[in-house]
Amino acid sequence: MNTALWIVTGLLTAVYLFSGFGKLFVPREKMASMSHAARWVLDFRTGTLKAIGALEILGAVGLVLPAVLGIAPILVPLAAGGLALIMTGATIVRIRRGETRAALGDVAYLALAAFVAIGRFAREPFTG
Minimal CA–CA distance to 110: which of 98, 123, 95? Predict the structure, then answer.
């Protein structure tokens, strides 16, 4: 179980770092033109996108750094829970926009973040 949690944590960290830095440094008009699935960014102001990106980066760092350093490892499941909340919001936005297929992808990331949160809170916590 510990190995599965670390694999999922690594995957989520990579995804949220990439996504978060994209939201921070890529203009929203350019992001929206990259794919049809990214048109949701036009529904939000630039500052809101940057805030979401910063939260994703903080969540990604919070998934790994506390456990690796052994400093406040309780932050790992809290970060995973926070990322699950972000993905809940993303799913709601997609459903409201009628983007059901994209919402399924968001639900998958939500499930992975919930898996890490529950796994690190109850099944395989870092602290005894």
Answer: 95
